[in-house]
Amino acid sequence: MKKVVITADCVCDMPEELLEQYGIKAIYFYIITEHGCFRDREEVTSDNIVEYFRQGGTNVKTKAPLVEEYREFFEKNLKDADQIIHIAMSSALSLGCGRAEIAAKNFEGKVSVVDSRLFSTGMAHLVMKASELVKKGSDAKEIISALEEMKLKVVTGFIAENAKYLYETGNVNRFVKVVCEVFKIHPVLIMKKGVMKLKTIKIGNYENAVLRYVKGEMKKRDKIDKKRVFITHASCSVKLLSRVKREVAKYCVFEDTKITQASATITGNCGPNTIGVLFVRK
Description:
Elements: E1 4-9, H1 16-22, E2 25-27, E3 30-33, E4 36-39, H2 46-54, E5 61-63, H3 67-77, E6 83-88, H4 96-104, E7 111-115, H5 121-136, H6 140-150, E8 154-155, E9 157-160, H7 164-168, H8 174-183, E10 185-192, E11 195-203, H9 206-217, E12 228-234, H10 238-251, E13 256-261, H11 264-270, E14 274-280
Helix pairs in contact: 2-11, 3-4, 5-6, 9-10
């Protein structure tokens, strides 16, 4: 049987210990500020981005690896595999998926690229599913088919304390930014057809708004796959994370609840004190 290895863009936001546990190889993205260009995970972390924002920085850009970098990444990992399945960030949000597809053409069918149509730990659900199928002995075709079906069921959304950083990175327009500032509104965004859309808004105290966001996400609990949930955040307090974990458990008891920190790339796009509950529907 051919050995299949699962790879992913680092914006799947899986911590290093989880990547190692599941045997996943991740390729860096780039963070660009006036101070230079840095590799996510290797040279810059989410905490670095938060500190940059706190010191008044706003000029954060993110960039996917070049085609040649994907080609080198695949070539390196094919030394230990017969086949690679690469799970990419949504092609509607990043050039990475398209570049990975171009690079894959160099390997005569040995590299397959799956456009997750997701980001952050929405992708991680696919990554972990793929890894579990590898361990069960599924072949590449079976794994890709399962991922294509699963990605339509992953709920990927988050609530941000404000719209300032979402506006700076082009994820919401100026009108949304101004309204959120004036009325102290907290935007809730969700992935829909591969792009981020404003789903709703929450008003009032941010911590209470986050709990209302969680309740809203869990309202159709009978339709939620109870296997796994990710609570993914950008520099949220331990207190808030604990409250969110308890709130999730109040409505839906998952077999596995993982609290993860967003990558520098994701943090750079959404800003600090952002949190999401990401799960899969049946």
